[in-house]
Amino acid sequence: MSDSTLYDKVWNRHKVTTLPTGQDQLFVGLHLIHEVTSPQAFGMLRERDLEVAYPELTHATVDHIVPTADQSRPYKEDAAEEMMAELEQNVRDAGIEFSDPTSGNQGIVHVIGPEQGLTQPGKTIVCGDSHTSTHGAFGALAFGIGTSQIRDVLATGTVAMEKQKVRKIEVTGELGEGVEAKDVILEIIRRLGTEGGVGYVYEYAGEAIESLGMEGRMSICNMSIEGGARAGYVNPDETTYEWLENTDYFQDNPEEFAKLKPYWESIRSDADAEYDDVVTIDGSSLEPVVTWGTTPGQGIGISDPIPSPEELPEDKQDTARRAQEHMRVEPGETMEGYEIDVAFLGSCTNARLPDLRRAAEIVEGRQVHEDVRALVVPGSQRVQKTAEEEGLKDVFEAAGFDWRNAGCSMCLGMNEDQLEGDEACASSSNRNFIGRQGSKDGRTVLMNPRMVAAAAIVGEVTDVRDLPETEVTAR
Amino acid sequence: MTDAADVEIPEVDYVSGSGIPIRGNDIDTDQIIPARFMKVVTFDGLGEFAFFDLRFDENDEPKEHPFNEQRFQDSSVMVVNSNFGCGSSREHAPQALMRWGIDAIIGESFAAIFAGNCLALGIPTVTADTETIQELQDWVDENPDGEIDVDVEAETVTYGGETIDVTVDDAQRKALVDGVWDTTALMKSNASEVRKTAQDLPYVRDDQIPDAAD
Ligand code: SF4
């Protein structure tokens, strides 16, 4: 059993009691809600005549269904308008703060929480969304929950959970040129499997993790769930505190920063903390990772051959065979040269400012391949605004990218941004499940944002490190 | 306000019905209910969209799938393989299955959030090893009307005159058998302890904690 880890400490501070089921009742420090998973929970509350217990610790945004092109109301699609209207009504009735599209603060829930300083170390954070694990980058305990649990949190400010084991994943060394946080997490999932984390929370540590900025840490924690882990976190450090100090919350409440810092320090895993498992990965040996299949665990280094199903563990062979058939890839080949039709730069994994900046560096002075439709969907309105001010929008548009408004977009294809037919997509998102991007015959290849930019230019999956130099025109 | 005592939570110590086999590992929630059917503000009517893309082709013509087969239309015990329900945390997935008519699921393994979502609906997710599951799936195929009894408390499944041992997660078993799976009612009754926990947290400001009016 783990002891003295951040997970243990934060858990204990938030534990209200042990329920008759053996689960612990945990206090929830921040409840984030969005339009897709919350309306049913509010409905259940009304059925039982219950009120929202902690509206001040709840925050709403709209991301999944929001159109990213024409955002005028009412939305063109009736279902989207209905969900939006329902959310507006629910938050108004309950007195919940709402980062709506007119506020300039709207965006993907896992982008706006950290942006506004709502996400803090040592908080318990829940949201009806599996990628809530993202917030663990700040040393918070952040979990995705189902709609019945959303109801619990709305009604009681608490959630019932079983304590998990803690696996420390130590990524040593320095990441090579062109290798990013996304590659680290794809590699972790490839090695440990999509179920490897079941029953665990992942603590990411080691030099390669500590030297990442907050955005990179978020990309890693974001995909913990794809590795089966219930949550993932990084111990807070100076990088974390620096980010926090510049957020709205601490700009508005500077005295809180000094007050809370000792708490943040106190919940860091102790040097002699005990873990249920420790895994070490040599970060310096990694190269950009891309997926060849239909689960995020089916990844390979860009120069590695696609495995033949027979080489894989027996229980993975069948899934691999079906995946290869769907993706139309052959074992023994690499993913380099895999033709793509769409390039999607977006999602809560990789649509923050540094992601867009890095991708823009690749795009600058180049043109999107004529057979590719490429779009950039910033993670939030703030990311969008800053990117526009920095001239990134112009760079992308000059190259032939479509520049959109903030939202989840083609990450899951719930709005009009979808793959069509059997289109293949180079995507900076986190899931390549069949049908995920809106077409059941669509093919998704996950990769880091610079690799997406490179694929958009070349028209096929390509090693961004091999792109020939261009004359970069000053902007 | 609603007290724990006001809410009847039914006990689910036993589920029985005929079976339906859903074969394949890693069936994710996007397959159980494609995202485009989630544009709804209630769960009513989700049942007909369960496994939609596996059941219908692009022209909405039915494909071969157990959920389309006449002989399984009254089935309520689903038998699945490993890592069932992985992927998105959407509760729409178990809701769609429940509304189609599924009352219990037997499988090799389940994704944790999916199993938690099932529990919140009172649907047991019980597990057994690969071979046992395959045998059961084969048996269901041959005996679509055959009764399967899932004894949550005893952790057994009985079918075709045979009783096999299965595993039910301890917390899940207790919750179902004692009728405490409705956590809202249960946790609401601890409101004052919750307030105390909140007060002890350095980041929660007093003005964010509601008065103890209830
Ligand atoms: S961007 Fe994708 S993964 Fe992230 S919250 Fe939206 S739909 Fe979910």
From TrEMBL, chain A:
Q: Aconitase/3-isopropylmalate dehydratase large subunit alpha/beta/alpha domain: which residues?
A: 8-459
User: Which positions, given as ranges, span the membrane?
Assistant: none
Q: Which Gene3D superfamilies match?
A: Aconitase, domain 3
Q: What class of enzyme is it?
A: lyase
Q: What is its EC number?
A: 4.2.1.33
Superkingdom, taxonomy of origin = Archaea
How and how many cofactors are bound, per the record note? Binds 1 [4Fe-4S] cluster per subunit.
Q: Which UniProt keywords apply?
A: 4Fe-4S, Amino-acid biosynthesis, Branched-chain amino acid biosynthesis, Iron, Iron-sulfur, Leucine biosynthesis, Lyase, Metal-binding
Q: Does the keyword Ion transport apply?
A: no
Q: In which pathway does it act?
A: Amino-acid biosynthesis; L-leucine biosynthesis; L-leucine from 3-methyl-2-oxobutanoate: step 2/4
Residue sites binding [4Fe-4S] cluster per the record: C348, C408, C411
Which Gene Ontology terms cover its molecular function?
A: 3-isopropylmalate dehydratase activity; 4 iron, 4 sulfur cluster binding; metal ion binding
What is its cofactor?
Answer: [4Fe-4S] cluster
According to its UniProt entry, the protein's GO biological process terms are: L-leucine biosynthetic process
Kindly give the Pfam families that the UniProt entry links to this protein: Aconitase
The segments labelled Disordered in the record are 293-314
Subunit and partners: Heterodimer of LeuC and LeuD.
Q: What does this protein do?
A: Catalyzes the isomerization between 2-isopropylmalate and 3-isopropylmalate, via the formation of 2-isopropylmaleate.
What family does this belong to? Belongs to the aconitase/IPM isomerase family. LeuC type 1 subfamily.
The cross-references to HAMAP family, in alphabetical order and at most eight, read: LeuC_type1
NCBIfam families in the record, alphabetically?
leuC, PRK05478.1, PRK12466.1
**Protein name listed in UniProt:** 3-isopropylmalate dehydratase large subunit
From TrEMBL, chain B:
Write down the EC number.
4.2.1.33
Q: What class of enzyme is it?
A: lyase
Q: Does the keyword Metal-binding apply?
A: no
Q: Which residues form a coiled coil?
A: none
Keywords, comma-separated and alphabetical: Amino-acid biosynthesis, Branched-chain amino acid biosynthesis, Leucine biosynthesis, Lyase
Highest taxon listed in the record's lineage: Archaea
User: According to its UniProt record, which reaction does this protein catalyse?
Assistant: (2R,3S)-3-isopropylmalate = (2S)-2-isopropylmalate
This chain's protein is named 3-isopropylmalate dehydratase
Q: Which organism is it from?
A: Natronoglomus mannanivorans
The coding gene here is leuD
